[in-house]
Amino acid sequence: MKNEVYFENYNKINDFSFVFFLKNIFLVFLSFFNLIFFRKFDKAIYFIAVNNYNKNLIDSRSKAYVKESDLVNSLNFIRCNNFLTCLKIFFIYPNVIFIQSFYYFYYYLCLLKNNKNYKLLSINSERFQQKIIILFFKRYRINNFVSIDDYRIVYNFLYVCKKLKVNSVGYMHGRFSRFQNTLKYFQFDKYYVWSNFFKKSLINFFPKYKNKEIIVEKFSKVYSFPFFRPHLKNNKYNVLFILEKNIDYDLIKKYLLSLSKKKVVIFIKPRINEEINSAIKDLLSIKNIKLIKSSNSFLNTLKNNNIMAVIGSNSTALLECSYFNIYPIMIKSGNNYSRDFISNKLVFYFPKHKNFGDHFIKFIQSFKNKKRLNNIRKKIWLN
Q: Which residue from 27, 43, 5, 29 is spatially nearest to 159, judged by alpha carbons?
């Protein structure tokens, strides 16, 4: 079977510039700088870094298996979207490889040759990235690989692990779906998941995992996060709107405007390392709509702002929040591919934006819906 079957992102990258190219050349140089020093590492790690003002740059989803004190003994592949943060990482953490920069570097080189076949560009850039991973794995004699199941890149690592007979350990960081081709073709040797519900879901979507070691480790233990329960304060409901990829922001805006007229405080959280959409930014002048920094972790946002309901379209956050007895509200966004959330009765679905504010207040005050929320929590987290 050809490699292109596995690659999922064929889209044209629109934000390329010569300056962007030069930045990635420099990050490639910094990564290769590590090759000067020969060491043998038993383990390689892949994790995500966030744009943060303090020294702790490791994304909360990666902290389940990444300890800063242990990074000196591993080869560390890092994904970060901000150039200045990458420079900061280089001086804070040892043995770092900015793996995504190799992809961008090769992609841009092909563009300079006037190659406008974006599907082929993506495939060839992925293959180049695989070769780079093989180079580093062989150079440092890697025997073990640990990573979150980041579908954007984990295929390339699992491909290399199989090729070089490297043992792989994966940590769940999001729900499973039939659209994740990455996990269909290559599997982690050991996989940590959040609950028996997700273990069954993983095997259901990807039957090859029946022959793999799947370990259920409680969500709160994986993220080292204590259980908490939100409560009504000052007769106002605090809700969190999750901004997601490829959604209809004009439609989302209508939901927000309707809800903003009620006794609620609306917190808006962009995707990690991303700026807020301009259509939504216009609403920040409304008194009861507040912006959460994208670098803030989802769980800290829930706890620190006493969130009682999370509103989104496809995000795993809709499942995570039920662990803390927070209402998962799914709305129509123009790109609802998580229909299984609805069919499995894991969320409360509001398909219409008209009078959404009225419907929401009536919904959240219903004792019947409190019982339904408790049933959702049991189904996902306690079985």
A: 5
- 128 close to 167: Cβ distance less than 8 angstroms: no
Q: Which of 192, 222, 252 is the last residue of a domain?
A: 222
End-to-end CA distance of the chain: 38
Residues 152 and 9 placed together within one structural domain of the fold:
yes
pLDDT in tens, 325-354: 999 999 987 666 678 899 899 999 998 888
Residue whose tokens read 């795993």: 316
In contact, 332 and 312? CB cutoff 8 Å: no
Range of the domain at 61: 3-222
Q: Residue 37: which of 1, 89, 72 has the closest Cα?
A: 72
Q: Which pTM does this prediction carry?
A: 0.86
- List Cβ neighbours of 75 (8 Å cut-off, separation of 6 or more): 34, 41, 43, 44, 45, 95, 97, 136, 140, 142
Q: Which of 326, 237, 328 is nearest to 288 (CA)?
A: 237
Q: Within this chain, do residues 251 and 110 fall inside the same structural domain, yes or no? A: no
- How many of the other CB atoms lie within 10 Å of CB of 170? 26
Q: Rank 19-23, 165-169, 178-182 by mean pLDDT and report only the highest.
A: 165-169
Q: Is residue 27 part of a domain?
A: yes
More confidently predicted of 228 and 253: 253
